[in-house]
Design brief:
The structure holds two protein chains of two kinds. Chain A is of the alpha+beta class. Chain A folds into two domains: 162 residues, no CATH class; 139 residues, FlgT, N-terminal domain (Dodecin subunit-like), CATH 3.30.1660.40. Chain A is built from eleven helices and eleven strands. In chain A, α2 runs antiparallel to α8 and α4 runs antiparallel to α5. Chain A is elongated. Chain B is α+β, with helices and mostly antiparallel strands. Chain B is 57% helix and 15% strand. A four-stranded mixed beta sheet of chain B has the order 5-3-8-9. In chain B, strands 4-6-7 form a three-stranded antiparallel beta sheet, with helices on one face. Classes of the chains: A alpha+beta, B alpha+beta. Chains A and B meet through α1, α9, β7, β8 and β11 of A and β6, β7, β8, β9 and α8 of B.
Amino acid sequence: MKSPLCFAALLFSLTACASVSKHNANTHPTARSVALDRKNCWQAGKAPTLVSVMQTAMQTPLEPEWVRDNFIQTFGCAYEEVDIEKNAIQAVYRAILQSLKNRNVTARDELLALLRSSPPRPDNLVRDYTIYVNMPSSGSNNHRVAAYEVKILQLEVVNTVESPVAIWTRVATRFRHREDHYRALPVRKEKSDFVRVLKKAQRILRLAERGRYEDVLQMLSTPNARPVTLQNGLDDLVFGDRLHLIDVQYPRRYFPAIFLGKGIILGKNPNNEVLIMKFGEERLFGLRLDFRKVFRSDLDFEIFGYKAPEAILQCLFLKAKRKTSRRTSIKF
Amino acid sequence: MKMTAMILVTFLWAASVGAQNPVEPFIQEMQRFERNAIATYRAYQWLFYEEKQSQNELLAFENLLGVYVKRLREAYETLSLIGNPSWVDRARDIAARAYIYRALTFLEKAPIDIRYFERACYDYYEAMQLYENTTAVPAVFKPLPERIRIGTDIYHRLIDLLDAKGRDLFSFGQVHLLLRNFKVTSDFNENHLTLTRYIKSGVDSVGYTYHLAEQKIKQAFRKAFQSDQPVDVYLALPAGVYYIRSTGDTPSEYVDLATIYVQANQFISYIVEPIADWVIFYETPEYLIQNQLASLDNAGTVDDDPAAGELLANRIAGRVLEQQSENELSALGETIRERKKRIETLIEQQLERLSLHELEQLPIPRTRKEFITKVAQILENQKMGDYLNSWNRWTTAWTLAKQTTDYLQPGGEVSSAMVRLIHAVLAELY
């Protein structure tokens, strides 16, 4: 087993060389990576985080006339895409979804299709919609249909740490017919569950940045972790999924790893060092990824279609690469 | 009643004959093209060693062979749309052999023009890739329709010919890149991409080129930016470490986008995606899933219970890694022994399935037990990584069969039965 280790050492030192040359050549347009210059991945000039933007935005009270007309207010946001329109659609979708959740009803229409159907410029999203929802009727299993009004009150683009085209939105919703309103179940007051998901993800990513592997594992470990089968390959992986890194030399040993997104994982090597690496790099440490054992402990990331912000992932990865290079340059 | 049955039988016979007829001439035409391709390959050889040959004449023969290869490939693709497995198998074998003939032709010229090694390699990979996602035995391992005489030797399988003349092909590795989700907003220019090999001492002494790979990468990026669809590109690269770079105005200004590690005769697959204003290349494990599942099953390593897994992982990952108990290590030793035993059982099972004729082809020294032990030992001694990254299980089976034959029957021919036996064991194992 000596030769693979030597090979790993060689590859490692070569990776180090590669990273060094990267920092020497920042003149080319491709090299102007914002993430490269960040010492703290969550600081990019004076840009706020989306969570802090949302926390401020969610203080906005619903206008009295809408309150009087039985509207409720929910919020949504998105930063995953580089495309502003797609982020806008996703943010509105999340806000409407929250409203439906608060009312304990489900949409009869394909919401995303509806939002995409009109020319999807952000401005065009700011209009009134009527959708149809299933209302649980008491006493029997039959669902009743109700018309549901959606008003998009605000749709803002903000430059955040995560993305220059992050979007947040404020929507007001109600049952179109008064009788449905009185017949409905009591309404929840939650403004945005997604912001809670965002906060959790942000905490995980911050802990990952500081190399607090055990804390991340603890945050994501629940007794009800659900095994996941990757029927569509890597596309089925969701932020926070737990994978296993198997020690090739001693297959009985394995180390849990956390999937962060874009092929990047947080894991540990047999020398007990915390690593942020991309798929394939585990081989440098004599490890293998086991895609049979994928567990999902937090379903919220899946339900809301959460993806870690690319700028943060890029920063985490490049920072970790620099650390590894330094370590290896001392070691070899 | 009898009359009806007779009519039905006659109808079925007529239908089957009728169904075969339109394709049979097509196959015959393919066979004719194949014979022409062999003749061209032999004529090329003759011309190549002729003193009065010129480069233009050689090029004419190469182009002619290219026409046959193209026509045969098209014919195979047409037949594969029709979907009758027996026709498709025959057509695939013919097309694959044509690729190999052209690869062999290029290999003749390669010593004087090393760019031809790379070209030959692409043809070799193309031939093997026709068998991807099929259970069919690749044509290179099957007997040839007609024996080929090259110099003083007569070959009845292409793999023997490749083994004699095409060993350089095994110095290359195949790299698959899947470019997806490209909506890069920064000013990424694919024409600035370069593929550079890591050279240790300042001089590249490998003796193979990789010019075609760079062109293919550029084309793939261009296509990815033009369409929303994922783009696949297959590269043949000599073993080594490569950097995909984005260069600036001068060659000294560059950014490394990815480092690719290529091992000889291996396959590696990467997904390429944009990440913020960067590009990330990460290895796709999808091709390895099946292999890993089986090998892990065999090792019996991982507990199904996530909570127990967590406990074990914490115990291992955390504080007590170095203090792994003697008992655990001895248990691990037991696993290796069990594994060897399992390989022996698999070989025994496969031997039971072989015909008497096939058994005679195996290099069994004195006793069957001795043979099984040796094959199991060779399989066990192989590095796990070699199997997992092997771009084709048949080539791995060939290498191991050759190793076994060389040990048990030095100088003996590697029999097809031996290759099939190892392939079957590998398929069960990984």
